[in-house]
Amino acid sequence: MSLRVQSITRDEHLAFVAARPSASHMQIPSWGDVKPDWRAESLGWTDESGALVGVGLVLFRPLPRLRKYLAYLPEGPLVDWHAPDLVERWLEPMLAWLKARGAFSVKMGPPVVVRRWSADAVKAAIADPGAHRLRDAEASSYEPRAFDVADRLRRAGWQQTEPGGEDGFAAGQPRYVFQIPFAGRTLEDVHGGLNQQWRRNIKKAEKAGVKVVRGGAEDLPAFYGLYTETAERDRFIPRPLSYFRRMWSALNAEHPDRMRLYLAHHDGEVLAAATMLTVGEHVWYSYGASTSRRREVQPNNAMQWRMMADAHELGAAVYDLRGITDTLEESNHLLGLLRFKVGTGGQAVEYLGEWDFPLNKLLHRALDLYMARR
C-alpha cells in the first residue's frame, strides 16, 4: 500500500527531524521563513497505523498571473530513498498531493551520496593534465544503491538537472560538496588530517595574534561588508543584508544554536567572517567572507579551525564545507577554493543532484525557457 501524504504542523516536522542523526538545514521548518518569496509547507508521510515515517519542507513559487506553482524540496525530502517501492509508495502520493496544491512542476534534491574522492584523489586529479572534471576522475568509493535510485527515478519520468555552467555548480543546490568526517575521530585526529600548509597557517595566525570570536546579530553588518567584497572578488551576486538578518532570527528562533557567526580579528580589524549551521550531527560552513588585506596572517585558516573545533565539541559526525567546483581547469577562478578545502584532508562528495518532474509539460517547458534566458 502507498503511504498517505498530508500537511503536518511545524512541531511534528521538527520532532521527526530531531529524532534522526541529521537532515539538511534546507529541510527544517524555519528554512521556509528564510525564503519569503516562496510559500512554505511541511508535508508528512504516514503509514497504515498513522505513524509519521517521512517529512519534507516544500517551497511553492507562484507563476506570474497564474495560480500555478513550482514546488521545490531542496536537499529533500527526508524519506526512505532505498525503499524497493520508492516510486509507488513514497513519490507518487507526493506528486498527487503537490498537484492538488496547484504545482505544475516538482523539483527535489535527493540526499543520496553517489561517489566520494579522498583528498589525495582530488589532488591527483587536479595535478593530472588529462583530467578536466572531477566526475571523470577515479572515485575512492562508490555507493552502488545510488545508481539504483537514479534508475528508478528516470524510469518513473523524473528528469535529472545537469550541473550548469563552467564551474560545475547546479542552478539550485550544489551536487558536489566537500566534507570532513568527524565520526569516531578525536580533534587531534582531525588536526593530523590537515595538510602541512594548513597546520603551518593555523600556527602562523596564532603567532600573529589573530583572535577568532563568536558574534551576534549586531555583528552581521561587519560580516556583510566582507561578504560584498568577497562577492566582487569571486564574481557572484551577493544576497542582501536583510537575508542574513532573516536567517539569523528565523533559524535561532527554532533552535538557539542553529546558526552561529564567527569573526577573525587582527589589530582591531575584522579580516574574515563566516556563518555556521547545525542540524543534529551535521554541521555546515554556510557563508564565508574575507578581505584581501593582511592575508599573510592567515585569518581564514584560523577561523575554520575554530569552527571545526567547536563543531567537534558539539558532537558533529561531519563538518560540511558545502559546494565545490567540478571543473579542474587552472583557468577556473574557483579552483583556489577547492585547493583550500582539499587541504583539510576531507573528501569530495557527489550527491544525486536535483531532479524535476513536469506535472504540466507546457508550463514546465515555459519555465525552462525563462530560466535559460535569465
UniProtKB/TrEMBL annotation:
BP GO terms, sorted: cell wall organization; peptidoglycan biosynthetic process; regulation of cell shape
Gene3D superfamilies: 3.40.630.30
Keywords from the named record: Acyltransferase, Cell shape, Cell wall biogenesis/degradation, Peptidoglycan synthesis, Transferase
Keyword Acyltransferase listed: yes
InterPro entries with a match to the protein in the record: Acyl_CoA_acyltransferase, FEMABX, PG_Glycine_Bridge_Synth
Domain of life: Bacteria
One family name in Pfam for this protein: FemAB
Entries under SUPFAM superfamilies matching the protein: Acyl-CoA N-acyltransferases (Nat)
GO terms of molecular function: aminoacyltransferase activity
Similarity section: Belongs to the FemABX family.
Name of the molecule in the record: Aminoacyltransferase
Originating species: Streptomyces asoensis
